[in-house]
Description:
Elements: E1 4-13, E2 18-27, H1 37-40, E3 54-56, H2 70-83, E4 96-100, H3 102-105, H4 109-126, H5 134-137, E5 138-140, H6 143-158, E6 177-181, E7 185-190, H7 194-199, E8 205-210, E9 216-227, H8 231-246, E10 253-256, E11 264-265, E12 281-284, H9 288-295, E13 327-331, H10 332-338, H11 352-363, H12 367-375, H13 385-406, H14 423-434, E14 440-442, E15 445-446, E16 449-450, H15 453-464, E17 477-480, E18 490-491, H16 512-517, H17 524-542, H18 545-567, H19 569-576, E19 598-599, E20 601-603, E21 616-618, H20 633-636, H21 658-666, E22 685-686
Parallel strand pairs: 1-4, 4-5, 6-13, 10-12, 13-14, 19-22
Antiparallel strand pairs: 1-2, 2-3, 6-7, 7-9, 8-9, 8-17, 11-12, 15-16, 17-18, 20-21
Helix pairs in contact: 6-15, 9-13, 10-13, 18-19
Amino acid sequence: MATYWRYGVILDAGSSGTRVHVYRWKDRSKEITKLPEAEVNTLPALETSKKWTKKLRPGVSSFAAIPDSIGTNHLEPLIKHALKYIPKQSVESTPIYVLATAGMRLLPDTQRRKLLDNICSYIRTTTSFFLQDCAHHVQVISGETEGLYGWIAANYLLGAFDFPEHHTHGKGHHTYGFLDMGGASAQIAFAPNATEAKAHANDLKLLRLRKLNRQNSEYRVFVTTWLGFGVNEARRRYEDALIESTGRNDLKELPDPCLPLGLDLPPNTKEDHPGEKEHIRLVGTGRFDECLRQTYPLLDKDAPCEDHPCLLHGTHVPAIDFDVNHFVGISEYWHTTHEIFEMGVKEKSYDFHTYQQRVREFCSQDWKTISQGIKGKKWGGKVDEGAAAEVCFRASWLINMLHDGIGIPRVGIENTKLDGHNGTEEIIQHAKDMGFLDPFQAVNKIHETEVSWTMGKMLLYASSQISPLDASYLPVGFGSNVPEVPADFQYGGAVPGLGTPPDPIGSTDDDWSRVLFESDSHRRIPGFVLFALIVCIALFLSCGKDRRTRTVKAIRSGISWFWECSRNPSYLRAKLFNRNDRVTYERVLESGDANEDFELTSVPGLNTPSEPNEEHQVGKASGWASPRPGIDQGSGLSLLGDHGTKGLGQSSSWPETPSSAGIEKSLIVRTESRERIPSRNSVRLKNVPSALSLESRE
């Protein structure tokens, strides 16, 4: 039975640009009884590729003043890119989502609503994608929703959902925590241990997924976001605090410990307040320890906590049990720890001691030395002066957020659950043996797939397309941690009562276009060879009988030649290089007496241009007479002699003379076939004039 592919498209509409993602998975609903038990107990296997994504700048929020142009000027190239990888017959069954994040959250409500309406209208009128409901498919998602999608994606890629027995962290816990940080905000998502989950049940989200065995799996996850705690907003808040700490407004220069020594820069300003600090210059002092001390207050740890416990900025977060909660961090957590301060192999865990030592060494250098290192690509081709100027502050902010804000143990300094305690060497070996079981690890890809919250959203949709065992099963999605379906429940797939996508048509696992021409298909090469063979056979059969016969003979001749060359290499060398030793062949003419020589008798009046006075000779011989060079053979020679025999006729350009008539009478040829020519005999010609020669013809 054919296995159909299902597809899904998500447009991640961020503040700086929009990125389109295409995913696909196999619809196994009709073959579930034939699948092995290990596969039945898993979620749908999503596939994606780097070439299936495309990013376009600027972000959708930049079209707030011209919402009518967002379709043709922004969405069109992204949608066209997605359609290149989705079979035409599958487009109608393919859902499309446009989910906006930070940039759209900052717009006034009227502008935001107008943009969303234009996006939905454009997709509906210009494409055949499945778009059930505008409010569901085109929306601005909250920071908490974005963090939850990221948590789903990370745990799915790590295998925590499909193979929990391989990820036992103790106390019945098998999932991983998730950390994300961008320019404006930061998110955290994790499943608390059983004690904390019970104590803070009202603070958790209930997430429901469905596996191929048609049974539900439920997870209770805490997720929150900190607006203003992204690296760009944190830097702006830091500079404001730095200037305010002086108590003066007439300063022209201000020492900045978070900039490399000797670097001179203006402070950051808000877009709506340009020039408010343009009279001030920040001069780097390269004192990283002082930078750490001055960025710590930005965590706002002293803010009132209305619902204990709190981590930072007065935000309630259940207590994190680092015995079972192991975190992976993406986005800024990865870039700041790896783009300049590469920790070695990508699978190596975060080592606080090694990382802080490298940052301190880097930031203590003067800017001239750093600039020369950038030109020599000391830190790789991706590091430019802009990144190098910011990395000291970014590193200090990341360290403070991780260890003083969230409370991640300082691996390499503080006691952890690792056996013994040998800093970097121990954590490297532990990472190799145990995978992602350390308190924190920055990642960009897991199993060669980039970690993106969009995968979490698409996994929810794919999971929702699996029919439940019976009507008592609750739908796939997430909402408040209460029984049944809460009012704030967000469906993973189609909203009930608003229609469902049609079944996919024709996009089977044996789709020839995908098998033959898509580079990611493991059957591309053998499939293409089979396709070429079918084409060759079709062309061969379309040829006429004679052409097919000649083709077969040519193939046989080629095979014989290669066989002879393989058996006798000297034969090939003789053919290619020994040109002087080539065999020469004499013209073989029919003759009753094989070795009998003959003489051409003289023919008066027939002279060649080169020998006008020389008499020609004509001999009596069986065989074909060669036509005279330079004479029109088409009209001057008749191959029908008297009595129905073949012979040399009289040329129309020659005058009819007794001499020429003698030629006709003397050149009588026989019509015996070539097969009757003796194989080892020949007729030697003597004194053959250049004007007339005899040639054996069939």
